[in-house]
Description:
Layout: H1 20-36, E1 39-46, H2 50-59, E2 64-68, H3 71-78, H4 91-94, E3 101-106, H5 110-119, E4 121-124, E5 136-138, E6 141-142, H6 151-156, E7 161-164, E8 167-170, E9 174-177, H7 185-194, E10 199-209, E11 214-216
Antiparallel strand pairs: 1-3, 1-10, 2-3, 4-10, 5-9, 6-8, 7-8, 10-11
Helix pairs in contact: 1-3
Amino acid sequence: xxxxxxxxxxxxxxxxxxxxxxxxxxxxxxxxxxxxxxxxxxxxxxxxxxxxxxxxxxxxxxxxxxxxxxxxxxxxxxxxxxxxxxxxxxxxxxxxxxxxxxxxxxxxxxxxxxxxxxxxxxxxxxxxxxxxxxxxxxxxxxxxxxxxxxxxxxxxxxxxxxxxxxxxxxxxxxxxxxxxxxxxxxxxxxxxxxxxxxxxxxxxxxxxxxxxxxxxxxxxxxxxxxx
Length: 227
């Protein structure tokens, strides 16, 4: 029999693509922020944690505005050359909007912005693919921190465990991860169970624009295409 056209699988996880109107809204919001605030910064981030970043952004809500998203859209908002820049010299910022980068418009003094970014860091559990910052090895013996119900789950993560009189026991030494090596999904889950946090969410200032000057904070950056 032919397949009924009525019986179709509908994917509920599909989301509508953000179109031209959404991009134009971001461009307009950035242009308005450049009018409302005295300076603009490009920053990069490592080990992004959305909730932590949201909290950091809330702390600066009264003094500035953050933008994350398409680098291309942010570049368009700033202007990519002298000919289309929205403020004198601000197109230089767009050259640094590459990779994991964002934009901050603020009224805070330069020294205060630098201090807040330098002091900010949040430790969290590393995710799959992250590079281990240390070797973690579990020694043979009882694992008292785990209940007997956890034994099947630990075995699924590759740990050589067994139940001994209701106590989870590691039958031989086990290396969870090696320093400098990417974490497997099992290693990342095991580190979380052990309470070991290897990821640090940090924000790094790259450069700053004000009506008076343009300053670069990372001297190792390629400046060959900066006019």
